[in-house]
Amino acid sequence: MYQIYAKFTVKDDSTDEVLAVLGELIDETRREPGNISYQLFQSTGDPTILTVFEQWKDQEAIDAHNASAHFNKALTALEPYHAAPPVIEVYTLVR
């Protein structure tokens, strides 16, 4: 199993737009066969910080997700809203 943490810091006035884009992405991603879990969290201390917690069956599932139309559409749509580069961390279950 793989776990991905994707942290986004968005511009102050764009949170609603970003949440709408991510909402569509989440709905599509949860239907992917290799997806175990895909959840969006918003910081309680800073609402411009959003983190997606993802769980995937294997690397092939991640690769399929990254190649999907809905993922690439979301990446393009989110690009103008970033206040800082996204931080993406990938982990694999070791125990």
Which key features would you list for this structure?
95 residues; alpha+beta; Alpha-Beta Plaits; four-stranded antiparallel beta sheet; 3 helices; globular
Radius of gyration: 13 Å
Q: Assembly type of the shown chains?
A: single chain
The percent range for helix content is 25-40%
Query: Structurally, how many domains make up the residues?
Result: 1
Structure write-up:
It is a single chain. This protein is α+β, with helices and mostly antiparallel strands and 95 residues long. The chain has one domain: Alpha-Beta Plaits (2-Layer Sandwich). 36% of the residues lie in helices and 32% in strands. It contains 3 helices and 4 strands, in the order E-H-E-E-H-H-E. A 4-stranded antiparallel beta sheet has the order 2-3-1-4. Strand 2 and strand 3 form a beta hairpin. Helix 1 runs antiparallel to helix 3. The chain is globular. The model has no long low-confidence stretch (mean pLDDT 97).
Write the layout of secondary structure elements.
Layout: E1 2-9, H1 15-29, E2 35-42, E3 49-56, H2 59-67, H3 69-78, E4 87-92
Antiparallel strand pairs: 1-3, 1-4, 2-3
In short:
The chain is of the alpha+beta class and 95 residues long. The chain is 36% helix and 32% strand.
